[in-house]
Specification:
This protein is mostly helical and 178 residues long. Helices cover 55% and strands 0% of the residues. The N and C termini lie far apart (63 Å).
């Protein structure tokens, strides 16, 4: 592929992004082939492979969305300041609180925020008039697309709902403004 890119000049146009994508694909292919090898080895010994080896905890086989696992991994994410609505709700006498964005609780808070954003987008989509609604495949694809839109909005928009939920749940619902 690199020789084709170099001959046609794609590498210069994409700033090396195609090389990164190629490396990601090679890595995933290697992991997949390794998993297939494990399946073949275990099936010959009478053992099967469980779904917990295929997908991460809490996700269903065939779940195509990007999800939130591994979104926050740096050391700075362990003591992050709240953002969005959570940052704006603190009064002048409020104790400064931090959020561990690498925790499972925060990941689940993001999933709930994602659900609320998806509901908002679904209601907004209902207001748009469309000419041809008979195509079920198109409806399914658009629903999947808007699921991913909701995930990307939750990760990048900084609404702060997940931060508020995390602060409330991690403090046991205690109010620190006193």
């Amino acid at each position: 592929m690199n020789t084709i890119e170099n001959r046609l000049g794609y590498g210069a146009l994409t700033n090396g992004k195609s090389a990164v994508e190629s490396a990601k694909i090679s890595s995933e292919k290697g992991r997949f082939e390794s998993l297939l090898g494990e399946m073949k080895d275990s099936s010959s010994m009478g053992l099967g492979i469980s779904s917990s080896q295929v997908v991460e905890a809490g996700r269903v086989n065939g779940d195509w969305t990007s999800g939130f696992s591994g979104t926050y991994t740096s050391e700075a994410d362990k003591n992050a300041l709240p953002r969005g609505a959570a940052a704006n709700q603190a009064g002048p006498n409020a104790k400064q609180q931090t959020i561990d964005r690498t925790s499972k609780l925060y990941e689940k808070s993001l999933e709930l925020e994602n659900y609320l954003v998806k509901q908002m987008l679904s209601e907004m989509r209902k207001t748009v008039m469309k000419a041809n609604e008979d195509d079920n495949a198109k409806k399914i694809y658009e629903d999947m697309l808007f699921d991913e839109y909701a995930t990307m909005m939750t990760k990048n928009a900084g609404f702060g709902l997940a931060d508020q939920m995390y602060l409330q749940l991690s403090n046991g619902g205690a109010n620190d403004n006193a």
